[in-house]
Structure formats: C-alpha cells, structure tokens
Amino acid sequence: MAARKKPATHSGGCHCGAVRFEVRAPDEIELVDCNCSICTKTGYLHLIVAKKDFKLVSGKDKLTEYKFNTGSAKHLFCSVCGIKSFYVPRSHPDGYSINFRCLDDQEAFASVMTRQFDGSAWEKNIDDLKPLESA
C-alpha cells in the first residue's frame, strides 16, 4: 500500500470567480451525496472539513445567506452567479461543507469515495454522518 501524502491545500470557487476559497484536505477523501431537497436540486457533493481547514480568500461581500426549515444551516451563495460552493452545515456547525464540484483540482486527490446519505429523512439518519476530522 502506498504511503498517504500529507494534507494539501486546494483552491475553489463559484462559477463567476467572485467567491474564492482554499481548503486543506487529505489526499484520500469521502464525499457525501445527500438526497435532501436542497442537495438534490443543486447537485451538491459534500466534502466536510473543520473550520480551521477552510479559508475564504475573496468574495465575502458577494455572499448571500439562505436559511430554511430549522434555520441551523447557513447556506451561502454567490450573489452574482448563484453558486453555493460552500456553507456551514446543520450536521457540522463547527465546520464547512465544500461542494467538491467547485474545487479547481478535483483530479489531485489520490482517492475519492462517495457514499449516499438519506437526507430526505435527516432526523432519522443524522447519526450516520461521521464527525469532523482535521486535515
């Protein structure tokens, strides 16, 4: 088995480039593919990281917040192009969920696994989500 690389910093952002961020993540990651109403409609693939592993580089003034249901999650969208490239999830309020599809270098990861999460029954399944791990 090959030795794992150290966590690396990856850049990403929204479609128009107004919002840019960096995230530290290991080279082997597991994404969460949720079927809740908002993730299904946006095609969001979650890479959940600790707050210390996320940095907003530009575009803070371009972010618009949307809350629904319990109001716990802070869904952040670019006010120019409408893309949600990251947000503070209800499941992990001490972290960020990065939309893997908004990373510039998706091919840089050695291993990308995706697992399904039944977010349409969120309350019943929340314990299936892993706790935060720092890169």
Low-confidence stretches: none
Task: Report the β-strand fraction as a percent range.
Answer: 35-45%
Strand line-up of the largest beta sheet = 4-9-8-7-6
**Could you report the average pLDDT, rounded to the nearest whole number?**
90
Order of helices and strands: EEEHEEEEEEEH
- CATH architectural grouping: Beta Complex
- Count the E strands: 10
General description of the model:
With 135 residues, the chain is mainly β. The chain has one domain: Metal Binding Protein, Guanine Nucleotide Exchange Factor, Chain A, CATH 2.170.150.70. Helices cover 7% and strands 39% of the residues. The chain is built from two helices and ten strands, in the order βββαβββββββα. It has helices spanning 37-42, 122-125; strands at 8-13, 20-25, 28-34, 46-50, 54-58, 63-66, 74-78, 86-88, 95-99, 111-117. A five-stranded antiparallel sheet has the order 4-9-8-7-6, with no helix packed on it. Strands 1-2-5 form a three-stranded antiparallel sheet, with no helix packed on it. It is globular and about 35 Å long. The mean pLDDT is 90.
